[in-house]
């Protein structure tokens, strides 16, 4: 099983947007700080310069220099890259600009993270021809961002998810419900996977279908019967030993 792709909730901090329009031309400059980990260790700073909606130059802190995307962009990027002070200052923005702002946000939002309480329940009982409907519910979590998905024997299921609904409780917490239709098959394991900032990793909850009523009763009667029989044997044996020892 591998999860890394599913767990990449990128937090994008759009910290500065500069827009100007003149004579029908449109220019904007967009700075982004992107990270997935709460310790901000994977922080990337992206600085994009756009002219008439097309990206002309981009600075990506992973690369560490300006890249031009048009003829004008390529020549300008070359001039900027020759400016050591500018390049160093732009590279440093990961630490001087992105991290301090992200830290403020982390403490303001993610410091108040509350992990969901997850419950699986049977909505509709099927049989070998009619599908069963099982619901995975996550309650009382914060913040709102969450991902609920289904696994069949560990592999992601997408086709039979009939509904997914998220709603606010009205008290800053949220709840979400996802339903899966499936025809029960022997040996098949259905699980619900929940990813949320309150968890350190994706959490997997296995669905244990309730045993049919009749079988359960038979099993119970059998267990009681067996226990009674055992007790009878023990008493008889004890009596026999007592009788012999006298
Ligand atoms: C930044 O550069 C890295 C390395 O080339 C790349 O993997 C990543 O996708 C780039 N990010 C953006 C937003 O372009
Ligand atoms: C950038 O610097 C290199 C090496 O110092 C030089 O060859 C090149 O002409 C410079 N380019 C610009 C556009 O200044």
TrEMBL record:
Q: Which domain of life is it from?
A: Eukaryota
* Transmembrane annotation, as ranges: 220-243
Signal peptide (residue range): 1-24
Q: Which GO terms describe its biological process?
A: antigen processing and presentation; immune response
Q: Indicate how the chain sits in the lipid bilayer.
A: Single-pass type I membrane protein
Report the principal subcellular site: membrane
What keywords tag this UniProt record? Disulfide bond, Glycoprotein, Membrane, Signal, Transmembrane, Transmembrane helix
Q: What name does this protein carry? A: Ig-like domain-containing protein
Q: From what organism does this protein derive?
A: Cirrhinus molitorella
């Amino acid at each position: 099983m591998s999860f890394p792709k599913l767990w990449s909730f990128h937090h994008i901090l759009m910290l500065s947007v500069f827009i100007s329009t003149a004579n029908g031309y449109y220019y904007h400059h967009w700075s982004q700080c992107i990270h997935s980990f709460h310790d901000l260790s994977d922080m990337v700073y992206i600085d994009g310069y756009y002219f008439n909606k097309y990206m002309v130059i981009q600075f990506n802190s992973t690369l560490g220099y300006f890249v031009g995307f048009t003829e004008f962009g390529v020549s300008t990027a070359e001039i900027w890259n020759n400016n050591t002070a500018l390049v160093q200052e732009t590279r440093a923005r990961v630490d001087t600009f992105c991290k301090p702002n992200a830290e403020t946000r982390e403490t303001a939002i993610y410091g108040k993270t509350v992990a969901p309480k997850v419950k699986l329940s049977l909505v509709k009982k099927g049989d070998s021809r009619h599908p069963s409907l099982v619901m995975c519910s996550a309650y009382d979590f914060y913040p709102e961002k969450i991902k609920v998905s289904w696994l069949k024997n560990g592999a992601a299921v997408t086709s039979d998810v009939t509904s997914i609904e998220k709603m606010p409780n009205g008290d800053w917490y949220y709840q979400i419900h996802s339903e899966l239709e499936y025809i029960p098959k022997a040996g098949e394991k259905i699980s619900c996977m929940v990813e949320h900032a309150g968890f350190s990793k994706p959490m997997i909850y296995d669905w244990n279908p309730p045993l049919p009523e009749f079988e359960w009763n038979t099993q119970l009667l059998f267990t009681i019967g067996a226990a009674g029989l055992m007790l009878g044997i023990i008493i008889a044996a004890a009596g026999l030993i007592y009788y012999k020892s006298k």
